[in-house]
Amino acid sequence: MAYTYKYPRPMVTVDVVAVAPGAAGTMVLLIERGTEPFKGRWALPGGFVRLDEALDDGAARELREETGIDGAGLEQIAAFGDLGRDPRGRTITVAFLTRLAECTAPCAGSDAANARWHALHRLPPMAFDHDAIVERARQMI
Predict the structure, then answer these.
(1) What pLDDT is recorded for position 98?
(2) pTM for the predicted model, two decimal places
(3) For residues 56 and 88, what is the distance between their CA atoms, to the nearest angstrom?
(4) CA dihedral in degrees (100, 102, 107, 112; nearest 10)?
(5) Is residue 91, in this structure, part of any structural domain at all?
């Protein structure tokens, strides 16, 4: 029998800051959102955690589904849960960092309309609070 909890619960997501060396210095891999909210804006690869998966497994799955990159080692950065960070409701994300040896060609998939490397020092306007997540990751690079 499933337990019923009488209090509202937040949604849990994972996001991945994938970095690699490139011609313009350190590069970060972003996806162009193909769905609302923030359709057409750039974001980190990520999404909702499934009920039957660990956080790092969810992060690896989202990175693979949205960019085609598989087998990357992940290091947890921090959790981000400011109120209003996601217009769909109360959402807490656990962010991960992966350092890749090179800027391999990404292949956009899932709900990503595009996937592309961007210079870390010159990022486009970002969806959600992903600029704050990238800034925290920058401290670890």
Answers:
(1) 98
(2) 0.94
(3) 23
(4) 50
(5) yes
User: What kind and span of H or E run contains 98?
Assistant: strand 91-99
pLDDT in tens, 16-31: 999 999 999 999 999 9
Under 8 Å between Cβ of 13 and 49: yes
Asked whether residue 102 is domain-assigned, the answer is yes
Alpha-carbon span 64 to 48, nearest angstrom: 14
Backbone phi and psi for residue 136, each to the nearest 5 degrees, phi listed first: -65, -40
The sign of the dihedral angle between the CA atoms of 62, 56, 91, 32 is: negative
Domain housing 63: 18-138
Residues 103-116: tens digit of each pLDDT: 999 998 888 889 99
CATH number at residue 132: 3.90.79.10
Please tell me the total count of domains within the chain: 1
pLDDT (0 to 100) of residue 2: 73
